[in-house]
Design goal:
562 residues; six-stranded antiparallel sheet; six-stranded mixed sheet; 15 strands
């Protein structure tokens, strides 16, 4: 709801603060008192066009601040969250500054925003009917959504949207499969030749690195063999004709014979050292022997390794991949050829899935269309019931539900176009609301629609500007009764010249001009019980308020409260 509106330096208003409550708030005053200025100011705060003429003469800028407390279920919150503007306290403060040179700035919760964003927020928060041309109910783009909300069709629309997205996804999968098949056919000869080469080469992951190490060993084979032979000979030279190990054994035998003598403690460390040396020498001899027998020093082996290594690297360069990925490339080529060989497989399967998804969407869309036509008929009857008391009994309201053009398959919201039309004169064809209805008729027609759509539309604040223009008596009473009924669901503000409407208000504001030293100023006063009776009496009697007018005003107030 709209909690407060602060206006500073707008036309005849220098400073004004209004605090609003739920229900129906009425604003009254003599013609020219400045009621339209309030609506101009509110429109400015909601992202309306900034006209420098709105700035009070002599002021540097006009500032309008609107404080809202919207329910958490409203669509405005996702937009605020998306823009990083959501307030944790659930409050929303919009502010517009308009300089005397026409430049303007917009703020939401004290953060600067574009006027375009402010307008989007404003459209989700407040809907103004009457003197403003821009009304959501006049835009056919909103009619389908409003009809769906009225008929409780949103779950069906959700299912249709889900089926639509499934269908679109199935189409994409089929198109991708066809593209793969086309590419495979275009490159078939290359694919088969490349796969045949890789199958013959049979590359393995890690093989290049292993071959490179093997090649390095073989390239140094002669040097390695000579080193191994010389090391073996050196070990074998040791003591005389024996090996180094035999010499160590002989030294151990000699020392062990005298180990039991008095020199034993001094000999034991020597014996232990010789024993360790013997063990290490024997291990070294064994390892040299194994390495000599294990080493492949055949020059033919080097040729074979290099031939395999160079073949792998050539294939890698040809296909533009690392050698370790050749095996994966072979698998990919095989899969691409499998698509070609199975040309009636994946494409056909995707085609069947697409047809099934299309059938599912069409079934749901047809059912939704049937429900929309049934809801439209009920909606038209409900609107017609509201028109007669509003002196629109000759008007004929029609909700036209028609299929989209033949070349359009539909969309996430179904396959229908929904348009609200009206004919205000018997025998005349129905047409768009804004083009057929006059100003007064249009305002009352919007009221009728809003009463019928109460609870279905998500805009929490409605403003009616002189919806009672040109009517009186029973018709004005009917307008007041419907405004009061509408205010049970949403917050309603109405600018009115009708005492019957004013008497229905939960809150009553009087707008008046006064002369001050600087010129003329517009002020607003909240009326209490006696003040309301006096203002309604003035609206009944005119300039001279009589006791009869006061009695009639009291009667209206009592009757409205009943």
């Amino acid at each position: 709801m709209l909690v407060a509106l602060a206006i500073r330096d707008v036309v005849l208003i220098d400073r004004l603060e209004l605090n609003f409550s739920r229900g129906l708030s009425v604003l009254t005053g003599e013609t020219g008192a400045g009621k339209s200025i309030l609506l101009d100011a509110l429109g400015l705060a909601l992202g309306g066009r900034g006209d420098a003429r709105l700035v009070r003469p002599g002021a540097s800028q006009a500032v309008v601040t609107a404080h809202f407390a919207p329910d958490r279920s409203l669509d405005v919150w996702p937009l605020l969250t998306e823009q990083g503007l959501a307030d944790g306290d659930g409050e929303l403060v919009v502010r517009r500054q308009l300089a005397a040179d026409g430049r303007s700035r917009a703020f939401v919760n004290d953060q600067p925003v574009s006027v375009a964003l402010l307008k989007r927020l404003g459209e989700a928060l407040v809907e103004i009917h009457g003197q403003f041309e821009s009304q959501r109910l006049l835009d056919p783009a909103s009619h389908r959504e409003l009809l769906d909300a009225y008929g409780g069709l949103k779950p069906m629309v959700f299912d249709v949207g889900h089926a639509w997205r499934d269908w679109r996804a199935a189409i994409a999968r089929r198109q991708e499969a066809e593209a793969r098949l086309l590419a495979a056919r275009r490159d078939e000869d290359f694919l088969r030749h490349a796969l045949e080469e890789l199958e013959k080469l049979a590359p393995q992951p890690g093989e290049e690195a292993e071959l490179a190490v093997r090649r390095a060993v073989l390239q140094n084979g002669e040097k390695l063999g000579r080193a191994l032979a010389e090391a073996t000979a050196a070990l074998q030279r040791g003591a005389g004709a024996g090996s180094c190990a035999e010499g160590l054994r002989e030294a151990l035998r000699v020392l062990q014979r005298v180990a039991a003598t008095a020199l034993g403690p001094r000999i034991e460390p020597i014996v232990a050292g010789l024993d360790r040396a013997l063990c290490e020498t024997l291990e070294a001899e064994a390892q040299l022997e194994r390495l000599i027998h294990d080493s492949d020093l055949d020059p033919a082996a080097l040729e074979q390794v290099e031939e395999r290594l160079f073949a792998l690297r050539a294939a890698a360069r040809k296909h533009g991949v690392p050698a370790d990925q050749l095996d994966a490339l072979r698998g990919d080529l095989a899969r691409r050829l499998a698509v070609l060989d199975d040309s009636n497989g994946e494409v056909a399967r995707c085609g069947r899935e697409e047809r099934a998804a299309a059938d599912a969407y069409r079934r749901l869309a047809v059912t939704l269309s049937e429900r929309r036509r049934a809801v439209a008929a009920a909606f038209d009857r409900a609107v017609a019931a509201e028109l007669e008391p509003l002196r629109l009994g000759k008007a004929r309201f029609t909700t036209r539900v028609e299929p989209l053009t033949e070349d359009t398959v539909g969309g996430a919201s179904g396959r229908d176009r929904v348009v609200f039309e009206v004919s205000t004169n018997p025998g005349m064809p129905a047409g768009p609301l804004a083009k057929i209805a006059s100003g007064g008729e249009l305002a009352r027609l919007m009221l009728a629609l809003k009463v019928v759509l109460a609870g279905a539309d998500g805009v929490p604040v409605l403003v009616f500007d002189e919806v009672d223009a040109g009517i009186g008596g029973a018709v004005a009473a009917a307008v007041g009764e419907r405004l009061a009924r509408l205010a049970e669901t949403v917050q309603v503000l109405v600018v009115t010249h009708s005492p019957q409407v004013a008497a229905r208000g939960h809150t009553h504001w009087r707008i008046a001009k006064s002369a001050v030293a600087e010129g003329t100023r517009t002020g607003v006063e909240m009326l209490d019980g006696d003040g309301r009776r006096e203002e309604i009496a003035r609206m009944l009697a005119g300039a001279r308020v009589t006791d009869e007018a006061r009695a009639a005003a009291l009667s209206l107030l009592v009757g409205s409260a009943a």
